[in-house]
Amino acid sequence: MRSRVSLILGVAILAVLAVSPATHAGRGSEKYNELLETGTIYDDEDWQQYVQEVGERVLAQTPHRSRTYTFVLLDDTMINAFTMGDEYVFLSRGLLAYFTTEDQLAAVIGHEIGHVVGRHSSSRQGRNRFGQVLGWLGFIATSSPSMLDLANTLTAAASAGYGRGDELEADAFGLEWISGAGYNPQASIEAIQILRDDHLFQTNVMGRPTQYHGIFRSHPEHMKRIHDMHQQVDAVVMDSVDPPVRDYLEMIDGMVFGENAATGVVKDNRYYHSGYRVVVSFPKGWEVGNSRSEVMGRPTNQNAYISMKRQKPPEVEQTPKEYVTQTLKRDDVENGVETTIGEYPAFIADVKVAEGDVLKRKIAVVYKDGGVYLFRGELGPKDDVEAFEKTFEAVVRSFRAMDAADQKVASTRRVVVVEARPGDTFAKLAVGAPISGNGEEMLRVINGRYPNGEPRAGDLIKLIR
Fold first, then answer.
1. For the chain, which terminus, N or C, has the lower number of CB atoms within 10 Å?
2. 258 found inside a domain
3. Is 260 part of any domain?
4. Which range has the worst mean pLDDT, 106-110, 119-123, 410-414?
5. Residue 331 belongs to a domain with what CATH number?
6. Is the per-residue pLDDT at 273 higher than 90?
7. Do both 278 and 325 map to the same domain?
8. Same structural domain, 378 and 442
9. Is pLDDT of 123 > 70?
């Protein structure tokens, strides 16, 4: 019996190791291509070049100086930076909007290179494989599938982010390398302090938990990291710091800030929703308006409307047609057609009109990326039914995924760098700013003045307009 168990265990271990490669070769390039295809890379060649220049300056101080790294800025509002364990480093514009110096940008890049040099992704993968082996051990010993499920659950939780030791080592690596590159080592502390300020703002003011990823996920407590970094910075001896590659505040001036995910925007009779990443076009000359959950268009010379609203997805798997008939419980549809809108499954149908002044009613459902989009249309008396049907069909078929160019149009809020004048306060500067509530505190966070700081006359500060 013992030899049989040993044989099964040996096979199980070999199987787990075979399907769980220790290396991450190619994962960064795969992620890059995926992000490129989905339009998630920030569409600004100057910024991409700038991030690459800063990254290469830091990289030259590392043991990987002979390797070719790619540093990529993402069109993502998350406070985020990460690697896939190889020579690709990804940063979000959401993170960069909080920085005020190139030194802080270099500190984050150095930290991420530290994870690659330290092979932290490989060690995390190793923990995952070991957890799988333990699961097989429990399964073999107890013949209980629940033991395997438990081991897999615990392993997933343990490997969700880097461990404390990995993070602190990446901090130390990054500090050493940015100092060697001529950047101010104090920026390593400043970058962590920015995270801590945003964490306090989100939890204490906005009343919501922070969900950091990449560089900030599973980190040791902020104050512990800041304390450790202070000790390391004090040990660094630098006669002077080198000038930056570029003027950071000059670069950040004009960068897109946040997204209009809460309500979407309407421009030139097109509706853009950055959160859902969808675009819908209405005919020229129509009046188009939107609320938090719905967009509606009306012709100026007709008694008609067409609307689109995102719906709760079905609890069970359904086709768009089944969604209309089963989830919406509509038994009044006819002449239905199952079709595709671009690459998305859809259903378009007439709604029976029993009586009254309504000449025509239409309904359509489109599925996209787990979301359900419901279109409705109605035409009043004494109008052209055939023309309305064509218009409804055209509006529904205009539905498409948002691309990088759309994102640029939809994102109306941008960072603006100005010189503070005598008497300026963040409370005054927040008046009229397109920030939904707590604008004063938000301006303090992005300018490194949270929770009580105020601008001084002559300071260059970031506003949102």
1. N
2. no
3. no
4. 119-123
5. 3.40.1000.10
6. no
7. yes
8. no
9. no
Q: Final residue of a domain: which of 228, 252, 276?
A: 252
Q: Are residues 404 and 419 in the same domain?
A: no
Domain count, the chain: 3
HSE, side-chain direction, 13 A CA sphere, residue 419: 4
Distance from the Cα of residue 97 to its chain's centroid: 14
Containing H/E element for 308? Answer: strand 304-311
Please give the Cα distance from 80 to 83 (Å, whole number): 10
Cα radius of gyration rounded to whole Å, the chain:
27
DSSP string covering 237-272, please?
A: --S--PPPSS-HHHHHTT-B-S--TTT-EEETTEEE
> Is the same domain home to 111 and 211?
yes
At position 419, the amino acid (one-letter code) is: E
> Which pLDDT does position 142 carry in this prediction?
41
- Residue 383 DSSP SS3: coil
Mean pLDDT value across the chain: 82
pLDDT in tens, 150-174: 344 333 333 345 677 788 888 889 9
> What is d(CA 458, CA 341) in angstroms, rounded to the nearest whole number?
54
CA angle 297, 259, 454 (to 5 degrees): 130
